[in-house]
Amino acid sequence: MSNTALQQSIDSSTADRLAQLQARRAPALADGDKRTVGRIATVPSTPTGKGKRRHPAAKSRLAALAMSIASTGGLATFLAVGQQPGALAAAPAGVVTATTTAATGSATGSSTSVATLVNGDVARTRFGPVQVQATFGSDGNLTSVQTLQTPAGDRRSVSINNRAVPTLNTEALSAQSAQVDSVSGATYTSRGYAQSLQSAIDEARSAGLTDTI
Question: Is the CB of residue 133 less than 8 Å from the CB of residue 117?
Fold first, then answer.
């Protein structure tokens, strides 16, 4: 065999061997790797999707956050509508407590007076409950009236009661009784107010807190 033929045989054998080696190594390459086979560089492929895929846990966290915001918003709305100025929380009917107030006098040095709080019954009206808390002085007189509940199902009811309640309080203290005139536009609240106040007065009489009303 001539030298030229021998050289061609060696080159062909070497090329076949290199091709076999390259074929064996190609499947071992990962899609995300960047490796060099001979002089050929394999560059990691880039996903062709429109955006990054969100992890399931991330979706769960977003859903929980949305529910929390919705719950907070719902709670804030409830408090804004249901708790109007001058209205307290509902309370059981009956005598609540007796408070002692000390006053300083120029001659005697000090004196004390006792004020007793009495919750009236809850009066059920067409638009919602009405309940008052009456305060009786040590002399048995009615010294103040405060609403614990008034209809607050909508803004109109809140507006009506904010206007009517101060008038009813003034009339009750002036009359020293539950005989109050109905406020125009607040008939149901006026009736419920009178009913709850009368029950507070009756309770005060039963407890011996007053005999003047």
Answer: yes
Q: What pTM was estimated for this model as a whole? A: 0.55
Determine the structural domain holding residue 152 and report its residue range: 94-206
Instruction: With CA atoms as reference, report the closest residue to 192 among 133, 127, 114, 124.
Output: 124
DSSP SS3 for 121: coil
Give the count of domains, the chain. 1
Q: Give the pLDDT confidence of 45-77 residue by residue, as tens digits.
A: 444 545 555 555 555 565 555 555 444 444 333
Q: With contact defined as beta carbons under 8 Å apart, do 88 and 146 qualify?
A: yes
Instruction: Kindly write down the DSSP assignment for every residue of 28-91, as one continuous string.
Output: G--TT--EEETTEEEPPP---SSSPPPPHHHHHHHHHHHHHHHHHHHHHHHHHHHS-TT-----
Closest listed residue to residue 149, CA positions, set 108, 113, 195, 95? 195
d(CA 94, CA 209): 12
